[in-house]
Give the backbone structure.
Amino acid sequence: MLPQDDQPQKARSAVLPPKLSALKARMLSTHLHNSDKRINFVAVCFLGVFAIMAGRLVQLGFKGGLPGGVKGAADQELSAARPDIVDRHGRLLATDVRTVSVFAEPGKIIDKNKVTDELTRILSLKHPEALRHRLGMRKGFVWVKRTITPRQREEIFQLGEPGIGFLPDLKRFYPNGPLAAHVLGFTNEDNRGIAGIEKYIDEQGLMSLHGAGFEVKHEDLKPVKLSIDLDVTQVLRDELEKGLVKFKAKSDAGAILDVRTGEVIALESLPDFDPNDPGKGVTAVNKNRMTAGVYEMGSTFKSISIAMALQDDKVKLGSRLDATHNLHYGRFTIHDYDATHRMLTVPEVFVHSSNIGTARMVLRVGVPGHKAFLRKMGMLTRMKTELPESAAPIIPHPWSTLNSITIAFGQGINVAPLQAMAAVAGLVNGGNLMVPTFLKRDQAQALKVSKNVVRPDVSEAIRYLMRINAEIGSAKKANIPGYFVGGKTGTADKIIHGRYANNKVFTTFMALVPANKPKYLFMVIMNEPQGLKSTFGFHTAAWNSGEITGKVITRAAPMLGLAPEDVLPKAPFPLLAAQGYTYVNQPNGGGMVD
Amino acid sequence: MLRLINLLTVLALLGCAAYAYNISYITLYDAERIHKAKADISRQHHEIAFLQAEWAHLVRPERLQALADRNLSLQPLALDQIVSADQLPNKTQQGDPLSAALSGLGLGDTTSSLAMKAHSTPLTPHDQHRPRRKPTKVTLAPPKTIADLLKMH
């Protein structure tokens, strides 16, 4: 049968040329043994195509960031939304505003030089070469400029360049400019906190959300409420600024602390910066001197020494200390700035700011007791508030008796001014030491995190000492009538090349309002204030820091809800009176101090 | 019979399909509207935030203090100006010279001029020592807008 079937084929092939007919026979043959090659051919074709596709996929997978990934790249680059920051009364301190930023896809730009020139003209860029470099990068997405004006946007749009695009972006805005700048800090171009409370907010987990790809909307974020009072801060900054000019000081700073809650009501340090345009950011010149600088506090430290001696029952309020002669220790001599050459009671030691008297009290306590008390007061360790800018105190090592003697009157130990404020606030508020906070809180919350450091009667004694110092001592300039102010000055000679230079001073002033029921502690520090004609050439604390503090109290106290009283409180210091010191409740300490 | 059932089934199917498509399109339409509304809300939020920022910038204490110093004839509050209510003196009988003069002319005491007089007496004890300054018209430089402030460095 087979040969018969082959018959017609043979007949046809006879018509065609023999070579072609053989090929055709092979191609068109439906025999299985003939189609093997065709199947192989198709299979190879498919294999080739799939191999190319697979290869491309692998290539894409490795490369990433191709023009197709612009959206993804932009998402990573775009500013994260941040919560508003408001003051204690809800007034806006920092917010996000929506702006437009312009980006480029270098791969899509053909004439890079022309585009660079045009963009430089429109955006008035200072460094066109930097832009040229960015446009030359092999990246799918580069920023040209963050935050442009609507006019610039229109002009760039008119260029019609396909490789240039716009994205809505967020920009941090500080409506009050430099006011409270050191507290707020600032952000970088990507809206990430770099300093101050802004950095603190980021550390609370906001940025990890953004990093993980969650889109956080601005309106979903709860505002961060600070303890700061905007108006009071303005008063403080205004007076510090005037003081800086008047006393030709290098820098000055100040803060107001609520001693009941440990809240910082205002904090300013000059020179400062505008967080909207931080420029070089925080440098040694404009750093936050209240928390990130450490200084010798001078006589304001005496409050701590006296509180320690009273707490340890080494002295009583009426105890007399020998200030008849200078105190000699080894080859060192301790003398008084305003020497009295007689026996002094504790209030007299404070009012005359006797170094000898205070040193004798600390000597009664001894070095280990002194160290232990200072550690309890938080003077020997770095104080950590919400602000990331902090400085560790400089303490003597090793700590000899001589160190204790000088530290008694605030020399030989450098602490951050806010740290010293916290200690004094803890002493006067009934003995509850608390770390200051920049976030709003109430008294109950504050007492939970506070630590009891001195007895209530010791606390009252310190208040009495500060009060009498304001009445008849060095703090008279801050004794604003009607507020029952207490205060203490401190003047430390600055150390220049390892020696105390008495023509360059660092002055501190602390004032308590009111001294009977303490509410606010004011502090002003000045770096190298000059003596003026109006201060009779004096550059000690009472004349400069004291005067500024007085002005701040006058303006800020009514804002803080304190009304001036036209009569003195009847029995301001009941615990001391109960101990037999009845004179403390009489004006001018009943003449017990002269 | 079977034909009728088939016909009904086909009709029912068509009806269902039409209904389902209708629902689907309405949903799509509503979803789009919701999306638009959300976008709108978001835009409004941003606009509100912008206006709040601008307002906060305009009423910043530093600017208000400068404006008040320049344009108001008020003095800073002195502490002795704060008194409690019981410290306020009782109203004294000052008499009313104008109404006396009017009644002297036989015009009768129809209106009291005290209310008008109140304006001429100084508001505060401090003002007595100071000539009343007329609020001077000062043309202010246009306030910096946020756009200016946001100009990059």
